[in-house]
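User: Run a structure prediction on this.
Assistant: Running it now.
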Amino acid sequence: MKQIRIHGRGGQGSVTLAHLIAEAAYEEDKWAQAFPSFGVERRGAPVEAFARIDDEKITDRSQVDEPDYVVVQDPSLIEFVDVARGVVDDGAIVVNTEADPEELDLETDATVVTVDATEIALEHLGKPIMNTALMGAFASVTGVLQQESMESVIMTEFPGEIGEQNVAATTDAYAEVSTV
């Protein structure tokens, strides 16, 4: 089973990103689940969302404490939240930032990957909505999702021109990740 934890701020779409990842995995005939962790969070407050992907039925409904992969939507969270907490040594952390991976202060043996998903989103969508760009980067780094399944899910969730713009953001981010 592959477990994913997503760190973002309320209103950035962490839950949507988890949902898109799970739906794309489902398109590939895998078992998948996506769920948020909500408390008293509000717009701008740190939030977490989770996804699991497996070839067999998933019965675990608990939060993801030992993720294979972590996605960080807002790099400012690194100062306040231990985004590398529990990530497996051979896992990966994908961070939305223009910084190089070695510039980030993450204590982990996992691979650290950066992509300027916000800039990619601005280029394609005209708004800093980076969910689909981060999904593309995640897929590129992990090999967990295929581009065809991501495109299918995006076009289903966001039909028409907005879907095409999101597919373009996913494709660009897939190609632009930087690793350490």
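Residues 49 and 103 are 25 Å apart (CA to CA).
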